[in-house]
From TrEMBL:
It comes from Cohnella thailandensis. Residues 59-140 form the Nitroreductase domain. PANTHER family: NAD(P)H NITROREDUCTASE YDJA-RELATED (PTHR43821:SF1). GO terms for molecular function: oxidoreductase activity. This is Nitroreductase family protein. Signal peptide: none annotated. It comes from the Bacteria.
Length: 161
């Protein structure tokens, strides 16, 4: 699968098979994602493997589509607002890299913003200064949905003098 194909075929997966996912594979996708862009090499990504006890406390409405694995991605905070912001951009890049790496090997990911809520941050032990990027179900998709139509990029382009 080439990169453009991977970008276009990755979907947010809502329902997973019960099949477990190999931890070494997940680590290899995370490792690949560490090559994502990040300003001044802050490498601001933090990854938590969410265990069953914590996962149950989150009480997600579909339990992450039955994904065999749940990962939390957070971004290192900073006293400098610009650095904090740029760190979050870098971890969003990391998230996309991870999702594409997983998709290119037949796995799927479900991005949920549930973890950003204050109560969820507390359950997930996220330090106050850090930014929650998302919490992700990871596994093998029961079904890969059709892509939702996108607005043509031509409508998003402006020409500056
Ligand atoms: C910051 C962010 C937060 C998201 N939070 C949720 C969420 O809470 N629940 C959900 O179903 N999808 C969530 N998504 C996934 C989007 O709904 C999904 O990417 C979008 O519908 C496009 O579908 P696709 O990824 O399959 O192309 C989130 C995506 C991003 C980037």
């Amino acid at each position: 699968m080439n990169t453009i194909e991977a970008i276009k075929t990755r979907r947010n997966i809502k329902q997973f098979k019960a099949d477990p996912i190999d931890r070494d594979k997940v680590i290899s996708w995370l490792e690949a994602a560490t090559f994502s862009p990040n300003h001044r090499m802050t490498e601001p990504w933090k990854v938590a493997f969410v265990g069953p006890e914590t996962r149950a406390k989150l009480n997600h409405k579909t339990d992450f589509g039955g994904a065999p694995l749940v990962l939390l991605l957070t971004s290192k905070g900073s006293a400098m607002p610009i650095e904090k912001e740029e760190n979050a951009y870098a971890v969003a890049c990391f998230a996309q890299s991870f999702m594409l790496a997983a998709a290119s090997e037949g796995a799927g990911t479900f991005w949920s913003s549930l973890a950003a809520a204050p109560k969820m941050r507390e359950i997930l032990e996220v330090p106050d200064e850090d930014v929650v990027i998302g919490i992700f179900g990871v596994g093998y998709p029961q079904e890969v949905p059709e892509a939702k139509e996108r607005i043509s990029i031509a409508e998003k382009i402006v020409e500056l003098p």
